[in-house]
Amino acid sequence: MKPKRIRFVRVIAALSIMLSLLQGFVQTLPAAAQGPVDGRRPVESRLVKARPFTGDLRDLPRIKPTKMERPEREGPEPNPIELPGSSAPTANPAAPIMPAAPAPAPLITFDGLDYATWGAGHPPDPNGDVGPTYYIQTINTSIGIYTKTTGSLVTAFTFDTLMSQGNFGNLCDTDNFGDPVVLYDTFEDRWIITDFAFTVDGSGNVINPPGAFQCFAVSRSGDPVTGGWNFYSINTTGGLGDYPKFGIWPDGLYMSANMFGYSAGAAFQNVRVYAFNKAQMYAGDSTVQVVSFDAPSGEFTLLPANARLQTGTPPAGSPNYYAVVWQYLNVVSVYKFHVDWNSISTSTFTGPFNSLTATSWSQFTGAGGLVPSPANSLDTLYPRLMVQNQYTNIGGVEALWDGQTVGASGTTSTQA
Fold first, then answer.
1. How far is CA 149 from CA 109, 131, 134, 146, 208, in A?
2. What is the pLDDT of residue 298?
């Protein structure tokens, strides 16, 4: 197979001075690996459908969320190194981080959901996406739908209020716990809103059974307000699927989650990656195909690629590209998830394909990954990639646009 040429564009965030460095590089990837990662085979399962909703979201009751703080799971200690045997130049200690070009001005800005009415804990984990008419924002407890052109709030409600319309018969009805994601599928004109649901005891242990669920609301049309919704859920069997992240692809909805045991002090297990048959979700099928793999335990926080019609369609049959920078200071590691909905057993998760960057980034050494600020310390989540792992295909050049927090300068830095 001819090697595929893909461009990776890395965006490095410097939080302390609110600047960013945009750096591009081209790397020719090798042909696909001969088999699944470490001999892993696909696991087939099903999403469980709940009751559809055909009403108007503006009629949902506005119930304030219950104040709560979600217990955090501690990931492995980051210690990225330069890829052994690589020859990429190291960062210049004397070179300040400067923007490559001024960022364009926003078309519109407006206030999102406020803490007093819709918040419950810290941090709120805000997330959002934009469609032709609406912008939808999610925070850990609540959802707001805004008119895109004016920023006016159309309606807002809690996750429990929305998800309970599905009458799941599980924790998705009553115990939505955050890490929300909203996606607009530009290829099919549909919306997806998702979060996880679980309960904990007084010591912070996830109560199992029933364990943890990923809950999905999928719009039945391009109108998220009056067009109706389908509801689905899946139990992340074997542990808590923390930090779930998603990407739209022509052939499905792709997800990653950091898997931890159920107990409060449980260690990180591995990243689990999923593919969901989005066509079946949009059609309202009673069961939906799901394919999953467990990624190598040495990786942490893989991000699936997210594609948009406006930035180029992946070639037919292209795998979804998962990116991660956990292990190396000068590499974006990429895994390829190819799903075959007609022959699940032939689906593959291959990699890593290590793409060498032009420079090594500065190792951030702030205590606990935190940066002091006048109000609260900023959790940088170093060195994780931040959402989205955005795919583009412009003039036949495929690219992934990624961002992460790094040290401000030098080989190591306590400033981000």
1. 10, 11, 8, 9, 45
2. 95
Q: Exposure string (b/e) for 78-112, b if CB count within 10 Å is 16 or more? A: bebeebeeeebeebeeeeebeeeeeeeeeeeeeeb
Task: Please state, in angstroms and rounded to a whole number, the distance separating the CA atoms of residues 130 and 386.
Answer: 18
Which whole-number Å values give the CA distances from 163 to 32, 46, 136, 224, in the listed order?
40, 19, 16, 14
Nearest to 138 by CA among 149, 127, 123, 147: 127
Position 13 scores a pLDDT of 38
Q: Which of 85, 77, 86, 84 lies closest to 298 in space, CA to CA? A: 77
Output the pLDDT for position 351.
Answer: 96
Q: Computed from CA positions of residues 349, 352, 356, 360, in that sequence, does the dihedral angle turn out positive or negative?
A: positive
Nearest Cα neighbor of 268 from 301, 291, 246, 292 is 301
Q: Which ranges of the chain have pLDDT less than 70?
A: 1-36, 38-39, 87-99
CA angle 181, 187, 189 (to 5 degrees): 70
pLDDT of residue 87: 61
What is the pTM assigned to this prediction? 0.91
CA atoms within 13 A on the CB side of 289: 17
Backbone angles phi, psi at 309, to 5 degrees: -55, -35
CB atoms within 10 A of CB 344: 16
Q: Tell which residue, 147, 88, 157, has the closest CA to residue 331.
A: 88
Contact (CB, 8 A) for 210 and 244 = no
